[in-house]
Amino acid sequence: MSNFFKETDIDTSQAEAIVTETLKNCDDGELYLENHKSESIVLDDNKIKSSTYNSDQGYGFRAVTGEVVAYSHSNDISKESLRKSSENLKDTLKSKKGTYNHEIPKTNSKYYENINPIESKTFDSKIDLLNSVNNYLRSKGSIVNQVTANFLGEHKSIEIIRSDNQVLKDDRPLVRFNVSVVLEKDGKKETGVYGVGGRQSYDDYLKDGSWKDVCDEAFRIANVNLESKPAPAGEMKVVLGPGWPAILIHEAIGHGLEGDFNRKKTSAFHSLMGQQVASEGVTIVDDGTLHQRRGSLTIDDEGTPTENTVLIENGILKNYMQDRLNARLMGTKSTGSGRRESYKHVVLPRMRNTMMLSGKYSQDEMISSVDKGIFAVSFGGGQVDITSGKFVFNCTEAYEINNGKIGSPIKGATLIGDGPSILKEVSLVGNDMKLDPGIGTCGKAGQGVPVGVAQPSILINKMTVGGTKL
Amino acid sequence: MIRDQEFLKDIASYCIENSKKLGATDVGVKVIHSVSENVSFRNKKLDESNRADSFAVNLTTYIEKKKSSINSSDLSKSNLEKLIERCIDATKITPSDENNSLPDKDLMSKEIRDLNLYDETHYPNDKKIEFLKKVEETASTDEKIVNTEAGFTENKNNFILANSNGFFGGYKTSNFSSSCVAVSRINGAMERDYEFGSTRFLEDMMEPEVIGKIAADKAIKKLGPKKIKSERIGVIFDKRISKGILSTLASAISASAIARGTSFLKDQINSEVFPNSINIIDDPKIEKGLGSQNFDSEGVETNSLKLVENGILKNYLIDTYYGKKLNLKSNGRSGGTTNLYFENGTLSFKDLLNSEKKFLYITETIGHGGNIITGDYSVGASGFMVEDGELTYPVSEITIAGNFKEMFKNITLANDLEMKYSTNAPTLLINQMTVAGK
User: Fold this and answer.
1) Residue B33's pLDDT band (boundaries 50, 70, 90)?
2) Which residues of A touch B366 (CB under 8 A)?
3) Per-residue b/e over B268-300, b at no fewer than 16 CB within 10 Å?
4) Chain A partners of B76 at a C-beta cutoff of 8 Å?
5) Rounded mean pLDDT of A96-113?
6) Tell me: the pLDDT tens digits for A123-178?
7) Quick one: closest CA in B to A66, which residue?
8) Do residue A346 and residue B379 have CB atoms under 8 angstroms apart?
9) Do A55 and B83 touch (CB under 8 A)?
10) Shortest CA distance to B362 belongs to which of B278, B274, B422, B437?
């Protein structure tokens, strides 16, 4: 737990007094303090390419009245700096008058331990492991052209001071371990990437040689892609594998169900509350309470405890994801979805772990029902245009399906669809729901936050596959 | 207010001296201060006001050929002292790499030219608000526009870059940017488009009415899009996105991708990569340029480079580390390109649109479907059909796909280059790509 006012010219009670005074005519707001330590150690091209340690600390002071957000942030935690920020906020909101909402739910739940992953594994042992990864993969033969592996670890302490001395705190560990391999055969080069992570120590993900599984998976994907043929172009049936392909859910409907876009009526979903937006049997939740998952939070960045929010239940749109501002303006309550990348950023309603729950079909049943289509197992990133609803994602491992049988692997292609209608095209929902391995980062308005996704295998009746083969 | 050079220099010197005292043989450091003020409007009302005051120190220490780095936002000497110690400790146990080193002394920038990158004018928030009111007023005149958002950001930066070979260099830069996003609606379906301006000097900013009008016009034109049939067709890239081709080239010819063998342009130096009419230039010394700089992120002098001359790839983008791997000298491109552009083509925009009966004209792509290793490319797209030289109807929910190697060789440029961003391209045609739709 960081003491933010140690070694400054201001103490907690003085800071609390400034907060209370600044926010007295506002609807909401807080002083958000953050101490963030992170490290990155990268092995590339047979060498430790870089080792970097980052130490960042600062505050973001926010005042909200009506729809207006005034924000001021700085690295400098001092009396003068806070006063200046306070003046700045009051000046922006000088013509507004609000009533402070003191209500904020309390929680005793914790979804991760307060550990510092950077310090809980020695620097030497991290370097050793990266070298072992390199040696292990290169021992698979001269086909291995390039190996990159890295550790990313962080520890973030936050403290939220609300009006009238309400103080909320959280300590958040986060790690990620990634391996990327480039294989070369007959002049053709392909990449395979895999990684694991979450809110625990590195060793929780790497013990008993499980780092080898990460290497093997990256190697397997690259190997499959070496045999890939040009992907088909046009509309066809698509079977998605379980787990990480749920970024389809994240892009296609997740962003469209964030409170801000619906309050502003810029989301393609803003007039669809209570309506059928997906096939029967499709249930989607956004859950911040899963233990040690990458997208989980004990409290969000406004201090609201997270929850398991049902977004779509059996095809019907039930809830949006809300932060305090959008919830107040839409007459509802925060779902604990108010997040920010750091003290430098304003709060936005964001996803945590977005999951489609299991149905009753097996993956085999789905594949054997397809005459001509593709089977997509792994993806790179995706993107969505909230307003038109169009979204894309890129396959990194996919196969043709011909007459109910899986055929040759196909080259990476973009798949494009329409958010509000795609879930109506989901004809079968699998019984094999899986969480992703803990590697997702979601970008919105220039802010990246860690997220998770999960889904079972699904069959989509019609989607456009962006290959080169007509 | 933005801190002066002396203040930043003092911190840089402190870092270098302390690192050396603890055993560093070489040291590189950058100290940055930036102040940013942003105001945003939505539907003609104030939405957000944001002020940021940020410091950063980036320090790299070397012990012979071992290297490690730290970054921090806390400039207090007590914090820096602890972090320097940590950095030296990590350096000691990091395996050495024979290519780690500071840049050669004779390549370092010797003098700092005033490239007109700093405008000290402060544009107060009430002025920004007036500006944004005009932007949104113009953007929302048509009743089909149902939502508008507009923002104005003012940035002031100062930095010093220094190393233990005696290099000290830095200067102030400024940036003013304004944007408008308009949402249009017809029959319950919505489309979104935008306009954006970014300049070093306030006086060069586009008129607010122009920003608003362009955003609204573009959003309205996109209404009622159709999905087209899959086919092979010539694809014209609007100026907003044609510059993406240059960004791809820049990634593929970075010394890191070449040295690691992970570029589709590996071994293509001095070969024909584009049609012979094409020249590509990276010029860091353009006055007021958004990508202009005196030296690169290691302090190496940067000069104008012809990356592609008459279609032939002439230069990689080289920094010190990967330069050593390739046995090449740094050409001042640590940190990438500066002001990168295609020299103008010969056809007018109109003639380009008329050069075939039918084209697909793309105004926006989504997704990250470019693979630098294989050159494979596949992204989501929207835009318009062009028939007999006219934009006939909007198109969406399609993809365009090809391979960069082939795409590069089939480029025709129009002559409408504008220097609006740090990377700029005229409208360009790529003959025959695969479009996937219905």
Assistant:
1) very high
2) 383-385, 390-392
3) bbeeebbeeebbbbbbbebeebbbbbbbbbbbb
4) 7
5) 92
6) 999 999 999 999 999 999 999 999 999 999 999 999 999 998 899 999 999 999 99
7) B47
8) no
9) yes
10) B437
Stretch (H or E) spanning B9:
helix B5-21
The answer to whether residue B47 neighbours chain A at the CB level (below 8 Å) is yes
Q: Which two tokens stand for residue A117?
A: 């992953």
Strands A47-65 and B66-72: parallel
Give me the count of residues in chain B: 438
Q: Report the length, in residues, of chain A.
A: 470
Q: How far is A311 from chain B (nearest CA, A)?
A: 22
Cβ neighbours of residue A370 closer than 8 Å, sequence gap 6 or more? A237, A239, A401, A404, A459
What is the distance between the alpha carbons of residues A246 and A243, in angstroms, rounded to a whole number? 6
User: Between A51, A72, A416, which is nearest B94 by CB?
Assistant: A51
CATH number of A123-158+169-226: 3.30.160
CB A226 within 8 Å of CB A188 = yes
Asked if the C-beta of B52 comes within 8 angstroms of chain A's C-beta atoms, the answer is yes
Confidence (pTM) = 0.93
Domain boundary assignment for chain A: 123-158+169-226, 233-466
Give the ipTM: 0.90
B positions 115-134 inside 8 Å of A (CB): 125
Contact B399 A413 (CB under 8 A): yes
Put simply, whether B67 touches A (Cβ < 8 Å) is yes
Residue A413 has pLDDT above 90, yes or no: no
DSSP state of A88: H
Domains annotated on chain B, with CATH: 5-221 (3.30.2290.10), 225-438 (no CATH)
